[in-house]
Specification:
The complex is a heterodimer of chains A (464) and B (96). Chain A has 464 residues and is α+β, with helices and mostly antiparallel strands. Chain A has helices spanning 21-38, 51-58, 60-83, 135-148, 201-206, 259-265, 273-307, 314-334, 339-345, 350-378, 384-396, 402-409, 412-434, 446-451; strands spanning 2-9, 12-19, 92-97, 104-111, 115-117, 151-154, 164-173, 182-192, 214-221, 224-228, 231-235, 238-253, 309-311. In chain A, the strands form 4 sheets. In chain A, strands 6, 7, 8, 9 and 12 form a 5-stranded antiparallel β-sheet that branches. A 4-stranded antiparallel β-sheet of chain A has the order 1-2-4-3. In chain A, strands 5-13 form a two-stranded antiparallel sheet. In chain A, a hairpin with a 6-residue loop joins strand 3 and strand 4. In chain A, helix 7 packs across helix 10 (350-378). The radius of gyration of chain A is 36 Å and the shape is elongated. Chain A starts with a strand and ends in a 13-residue tail after the last helix. Chain B has 96 residues and is of the alpha+beta class. Chain B contains 2 helices and 6 strands. Chain B has helices spanning 17-23, 38-49; strands at residues 10-13, 27-32, 53-61, 65-68, 71-74, 78-85. Chain B is globular and about 50 Å long. The N and C termini of chain B lie far apart (35 Å). Classes of the chains: A alpha+beta (464), B alpha+beta (96). Chain A binds chain B through residues 42-45, 48-50, 52-53, 56, and chain B through 14-17, 19-20, 96.
């Protein structure tokens, strides 16, 4: 058996296998014996007919075909083993020459398992992540809390920014010249100036109105893109004539941040503003740590990927991209959305989305391959107890049917998956270790985080 | 009634499991005319295949019964001849 290999593209091997004529002859004999066993020749029991008769009965061509169908996969397996390749799919086979008495030649093209040569991943450097909870962030939370407890109080005078009006609104929407204008009436609707769905001119239109006033003004609805049966169309900008009658005018009243407010938002958990602020800061810090950790992990993995060289078959990336696409479509359909709609709203094209998926798929495969290589090189191992713990933790997060989840997770297949993911995570931790570990919070110590005590920096009160 | 024409004696070679097995021993199996004699078989074989016949054994095979609803009918009986050739001689029909 003579085998030559070439690599037409990264991660793909084409083997050309040449088998001596004798191999073909023996294969034909074996094929004939197999065929004899299932062919009935009159006058003979199955398998008892002489070879020549069988050959005449079924025809030369089908005997050769049978021989080739057995010989090629057999010698392909042998060739793969000899070369020590690890294919990830069934090969595409092509027969170059198959004539009795001549060498049998065929080619097999197959995608190989991705290969990686890790770079000097122990000396990669990344920009360290900082864990920083700014006072502004804390203040933002406070102001969100205040806004969520806004009350509206009657206001004298005229409509101004952030006020709420209760008004009857008539909208005459200009449509095609051919059809009638469309009129929409809403009575007694609550409208907050600056926070309504009307086009920009509306707020200035009602500005300065007092209770009892009626005003008529025109506003332009901007163009709206939309997808109809005839593809992408655009609804042209249209003029709308508003007639607004104000019945009530209210102004926003944000609650004052005092102990009362603290008690109400924390549902009695905290007595003082300081305690609440410390709690908010602690929560934000925990979140910030979590984000910083995952950013750090992504950075080290990216850095390690950048330093390594890969050989990945294009088909594998394609498959992964398809998989990601299916997943994304699935997640959109669960939210009763289509990806097409989403792309349109965010102003993306199918092509750019596919390119994104392709990049994501490539990164994922690279990351997996590299992490697996690191696991091997660093001799990382996973304990059964670690898998057990993971299973238990995951099962615990499904309180309703923990038993069923546990059973599913304990299948050999899923245990293998879990241990792979633990190993990969260990590899990531190893990488993080090389760049000096995970970022540590600088403003708070661990104990302060856990007991949520007040902290000197948290004592400022937000400005009113 | 004896067979008048020598070319009507041999009907077909019996190339079957048993036939090929016997051929390996230099014995060749034929279906022959039901009315023919051993001598006629010998003569017919020698003329047709240009070989020398050592012995001819003959058996009359009973026709099989075939049933159709309540009636049973019989296929015709037929005659089988085992022709032993001079050692080393063969009939090519059996070597397919």
């Amino acid at each position: 058996m003579k085998v030559t290999t070439e690599k037409p593209e990264p991660g793909v091997a084409t083997l050309t296998v040449e088998l001596p004529p004798e191999d073909f002859t023996t294969a034909v004999d074996k094929a004939l014996a197999r065929i004899a066993g299932r062919t009935s020749v009159p006058g003979f029991r199955r398998g008892k007919a002489p070879r020549n008769l069988v050959r005449r009965q079924v025809g030369e061509a089908s005997v050769n075909e049978e021989a080739i169908n057995h010989l090629i996969p057999e010698s392909y397996d042998k060739a793969i083993e000899e070369l020590g390749l690890s294919p990830i799919e069934r090969p595409k086979l092509a027969i170059v020459q198959a004539d009795p008495g001549e060498p049998l030649i065929f080619t097999a093209t197959v995608a190989l398992r991705p290969e990686v040569t890790p770079g000097e991943y122990s000396s990669v450097e990344i920009e360290p992540e900082v864990i920083d909870v700014s006072d502004e962030a804390v203040e933002r939370v406070i102001s969100q809390l205040r806004e969520s407890r806004t009350t509206w109080e009657p206001k004298d005078g005229s409509v101004g920014a952030d006020d709420m009006i209760i008004a009857d609104i008539v909208m005459d929407l200009e449509t095609d010249a051919s059809s009638e204008n469309r009129r929409t009436e809403r009575n007694g609707s609550e409208i907050i100036i600056g926070k309504n769905g009307f086009p920009p001119g509306f707020d200035t239109g009602v500005d300065g109105m007092a209770v009892g006033d009626t005003r008529t003004f025109a506003v332009i609805w901007p163009a709206v893109p939309r997808t109809g049966e005839d593809g992408e169309t655009e609804v042209a900008p249209r003029e709308a004539l508003f007639t607004v009658t104000v019945h009530e005018l209210r102004q926003q009243s944000l609650p004052v941040v005092d102990d009362e407010f603290v008690k109400s938002v924390s549902e009695g958990q905290f007595e003082t503003l300081d305690a609440l602020l410390a709690d908010i800061r602690a929560r934000l810090t925990v979140e910030s740590i979590r984000n910083a950790r995952s950013r750090t992990e992504n950075k080290v993995v990216d850095a390690a990927i950048a330093g390594a060289t890969f050989e990945i078959p294009a088909r594998l990336i394609e498959l992964e991209a398809h998989y990601l696409e299916d997943e994304e479509r699935e997640s959109f359909s669960r939210r009763r959305m289509t990806i097409e709609r989403y792309l349109q709203v965010t102003g993306q094209t199918q092509e750019s989305w596919h390119a994104q998926l392709h990049d994501a798929a490539e990164r994922q495969i690279k990351a997996r391959t590299l992490l697996d290589a690191i696991v091997e090189r660093e001799g990382l191992v996973v304990d059964t107890s670690e898998v057990d713990r993971e299973v238990a933790e995951t099962a615990a997060s499904y309180p309703t049917d923990a038993a069923r989840v546990r059973k599913e997770l304990n299948s050999a297949d899923s245990r293998r998956r879990i241990s792979t993911s633990i190993l990969r995570h260990k590899a990531i931790e190893k990488l993080v270790g090389y760049v000096g570990g995970y970022p540590e919070p600088t403003t708070l110590t661990k104990s302060e985080l856990t007991d949520g005590q007040s902290h000197s920096e948290a004592e400022e009160t937000p400005s009113e | 009634m004896p067979v008048s024409d020598i070319w009507e004696v041999l009907r077909r070679p019996l190339i079957t499991e048993k036939g090929t097995a016997l051929a390996a021993e230099g014995k060749f199996l034929f279906e022959v005319h039901p009315d023919c004699t051993k001598a006629q078989v010998k003569q017919a074989i020698e003329r047709a295949f240009k070989v020398s016949v050592v012995a001819v054994n003959i058996a009359v095979m009973p026709g099989k019964s075939r049933r159709w609803k309540r009636w049973t009918a019989y296929q015709s009986d037929w005659k089988k001849a085992v022709v032993t050739l001079k050692p080393g001689e063969r009939i090519e029909l059996f070597d397919a």
